[in-house]
Amino acid sequence: MASNLVIVESPAKAKTIQKYLGSEFSVMSSYGHIRDLCDKGMAIDIENNFTPEYCVSKDKASLVKDLRKAAKAADKVWLASDEDREGEAIAWHLYESLELTDDRTERIVFNEITKTAILRAVENPRKINKELVDAQQARRVLDRLVGYELSPVLWKSIQRGLSAGRVQSVAVRLIVEKEREIELHLPTSSYKVSGIFTDGKISFKAEVGSNFKTKDDAEKFLTLCVKAKYGVESVEMKPGKRSPAAPFTTSTLQQEASRKLGFSVSQTMTLAQRLYEAGHITYMRTDSFNLSGDAMAGIAAHVNDQFGEKYHQSRKFTTKNKGAQEAHEAIRPTSFSKSTAGGDDGQKRLYDLIYKRTIASQMAEAQLENTTIKLQNLNAPDGQRFTARGQVIKFDGFIRVYQEGTDEESSSTDELDGQLPAVKVGETLTSNRITATERFTKHTPRYTEAALVKKLEELGIGR
User: Fold this and answer.
1) Domain limits for position 300
2) pLDDT tens digits for 316-328?
């Protein structure tokens, strides 16, 4: 029997770690939490400072017996569950249930499953962080208090099997409030005027800045446009820039995977868990944007090698989340020499997203040139102007690798961006076509899963 027993919460994680530690260590898995609040009653002594009552899960009784036996035979026990609140609670429950002692128990944490990280953790053990444990216990007690009291109400008023909770009940309220807002929306119509203009070489689209409220107003305007000539009233050219998004946190990964890959939150976390346990990415439950010095050096070497020094720009991001644990790292690849990784197509697609987002976060800004052209109807100089906008990418920078998605509905038919001719003030143009299209105001969109996650994060719910 090995003199050192390492206990982790995942069998896949155990298998990977065993390869790095060798024969002096035996790595076993707890398969998640080994105990929880007892099923009988509320299992919380409200009168005694909300003291919880824990029981070993029935399906874990045999496992706990095996772990206890292995712990007694080992010289030292290393509790190596994840470094977040849940992981710390798992370590504490193991310590209590296996009847461990401080003199032969160590707590080790790491945010990536690589040989370097594991060996570094073994060299720098610590004790269980009781403050993190208490934070998890408070969340668990709140879940039970809310669910135990409210779930029966749902059973009576709606149907059995429904449950209430600290997070899900708030999420339901947000969805209901959004639906009520949609029901109250009364669509109003207006008329949007746009035209295709040309200098004889290049055709481009321009629009009137404000919509017409009635069909009569739109038709009167169109009448003035018949056979009209258009003068270039102004040409404005401004430099612009676009900066990359920060590396992924748990929340932003869930949102982006929903937008770009169509993954549900649970699907994203399952795939990320597998990538983490296989040693491909850092720990996937984090609210920090930080990257380690080694990671930033690895990205710099990759960018300089693949794109050249002008594409690299080192930067650090800060979070607005007051409760963020800044000591942790963002979600990133463990090695930037691996552009692809994962055991199946879903893992490979998610890894590609993480890889490109992390690389792009340390690349140069995109340099743009924004052009705005205003056109005047020479037959009606006091009338509304047409405006055309275009954007030229002078230097692609980070967008050569990655662009962040958006929750906004596509409005490509409204876009004015495109190639514009090199015109001068006073030049005369002609129109190929001018049309007025009736538009109706839209209600605010319903939450996508990604948008709901973002809203909950903004409200500080769920962490």
Assistant:
1) 250-364
2) 998 766 555 545 7
pLDDT at 381: 82
Tell me whether residue 455 is in a domain.
Answer: no
Mean pLDDT of the chain: 91
| The one catalytic residue among 230, 276, 283, 311 | 283
Residues in contact with 425: Cβ distance below 8 Å, sequence separation at least 6, in sequence order: 232, 233, 234, 235
**Using only C-alpha atoms, what is the Rg of the chain?**
30
Q: Which of 311, 344, 364 is the last residue of a domain?
A: 364
229: domain CATH number is 2.70.20.10
Q: How sure is the predictor about 413, in pLDDT bands with cuts at 50, 70 and 90?
A: very low
How many domains does the chain divide into?
Answer: 3
Two tokens, residue 146: 């809310």
**Which whole-number Å values give the CA distances from 334 to 114, 196, 241, 315, 341, in the listed order?**
8, 51, 30, 19, 11
- Asked if 58 and 125 sit in the same domain, the reply is yes
Alpha carbons 174 and 168: distance in angstroms, whole number: 10
Q: Catalytic annotation on 230? A: no
443 class by beta-carbon count within 10 Å (0-12 exposed, 13-18 middle, 19+ buried): middle
Region 266-291: mean pLDDT is 94
Q: What is the pTM of this model?
A: 0.82
